[in-house]
Specification:
The chain is of the alpha+beta class and 277 residues long. It has 9 helices and 8 strands. InterPro entries: AraC_E-bd, GyrI-like, Homeodomain-like_sf, HTH_AraC, HTH_AraC-typ_CS, Reg_factor_effector_dom_sf, SmbC-like. It comes from Tritonibacter scottomollicae (Epibacterium scottomollicae).
Length: 277
């Protein structure tokens, strides 16, 4: 029976991500879930921690934030692609969520030029510390495609963990990123959304992933997830060449220190972990 509800949640989350400009009313999402509107609202909130309306708004605005800093698409067109009827309603919603109007957000330094063309000071914007990281055993939902779209995998992972009461056995929420954007086509980028797992048996429908422990460089980034690319450039283009350190043969990963469902984008805290030899 739990699997039935997991499938309903996955269908609805996929539908929201695949149709940001479509009909995402509670009635439509209840139809996708094949459940009555009244009961679906309660099930969705219990398993995701948000109402349907809150999830729709957050996913739409995150999609818009990514488009603002990675494309030159007009604000009017971005508003339309994420389901807002005009620039003004979109601007009100975006400003309420991100603390800046869309135009100001686009020009606030998030859309930085390639590292080689930047003012060198911009590559030393973030403090980096060294830390010995423990080995971690994760359970995950795999994601294939652009890294900014991994949110759908995290949402599915979170709903499944809630439906199966896995949270008491889970530690930090972590994203693992195996490929270098630009070196691999966006559609083929491999990543994993999950959390450290403190039990023995991998739950059905999730994949294990082991991270070796050891010396690591830690960059703590504060702000919307769409700004993480600048933090990576700072880590690899600013700190690493001056550090005397050599990266280990293992992927970078991110440890998320607070919850995007209950934290304003400007207050999100993310640790980028670079394993070192």
């Amino acid at each position: 029976m739990a699997t039935d509800y997991e499938d309903r949640i996955r269908r609805v989350l996929d539908y929201i991500h695949n149709n940001p400009a479509g009909d995402l009313s509670l009635d439509r999402l209840a139809d996708v879930a094949a459940m009555s509107r009244f009961h679906w609202h309660r099930v969705f909130r219990a398993l995701t921690g948000e109402t349907c309306g809150q999830s729709v708004r957050r996913i739409r605005l995150h999609r818009a934030a990514v488009a603002l800093v990675t494309s030159q698409t007009s604000i009017e067109d971005i508003a339309a692609t994420v389901g807002y009827p005009n620039r003004y309603s979109f601007s009100r919603a975006f400003t309420a969520a991100y603390g800046q109007a869309p135009g100001a957000f686009r020009t606030a330094g998030l859309n930085l030029p390639p590292a080689a063309l930047r003012d060198p000071k911009e590559l030393f914007m973030y403090d980096v510390t060294l830390r010995s990281e423990p080995a971690r055993h994760l359970i995950t939902t795999p994601h294939r495609g652009p890294y900014p779209e991994i949110g759908r995998a995290f949402e599915q992972f979170s709903a499944l963990a809630t439906a199966r009461n896995l949270w008491p056995d889970l530690g930090p929420v972590i994203g693992v990123y195996l490929d270098m954007p630009g070196a691999v086509p966006d559609a083929e980028l491999r990543s994993y959304a999950g959390a450290e797992y403190r039990a023995d048996t991998t739950p059905e429908g999730l994949e294990p992933f082991d991270l070796p422990g050891g010396k690591s460089a830690i960059l703590t980034f504060k702000g919307p997830y769409v700004g993480l690319s600048a933090a990576y450039d700072s880590l690899f283009g600013g700190w690493l060449p001056q550090s005397g350190e050599t990266p280990a043969d293992g992927p970078c990963y991110e440890i998320y220190l607070n919850d995007p469902r209950s934290t304003a984008p400007e207050d999100l805290l993310t640790e980028i972990v670079l394993p070192l030899k």
